[in-house]
Write a structure and sequence with these properties.
Length: 146
Amino acid sequence: MDLEHNSIGESGVKYLSTSLIKLLNLSSLSLDLSYNSIGESGVKFFSTSLIKLLNLSCLSLDLSYNSIGESGVTFFSTALIKLLNLSSLSLNLYDNSIGELGVKYLSTALINLINLSSLSLNLEHNSIGDSGINYLSTALIKLYDL
């Protein structure tokens, strides 16, 4: 589902999340929410629904240019950590100001995805710094099936 550049904001993500939460048997989700100004609150709504999709094995998510910040990626990482059946993850967080702490939480979530065999991750323009790349590198080493 491509919703790029639609100005859906936080309220639009809330409506979308309310629908997604009912798709309990969903195994694959491809969603482009880039350029929608969803912010931290929007990611929190989305993460609340994502956490219920326990059958997901494939997730492709573009959250670029949404100003989710460290808090937003923390909410998302908390949901991601519950998706134990996930084998393929494509995540675009381009230009979201997630910083070093955001990468730390994301890296912790990635380590717990023991069935992950495919990973595509875009963290451009997020000021992750040396510490952030260290967290990410440590996580990637532990993902043996990649």
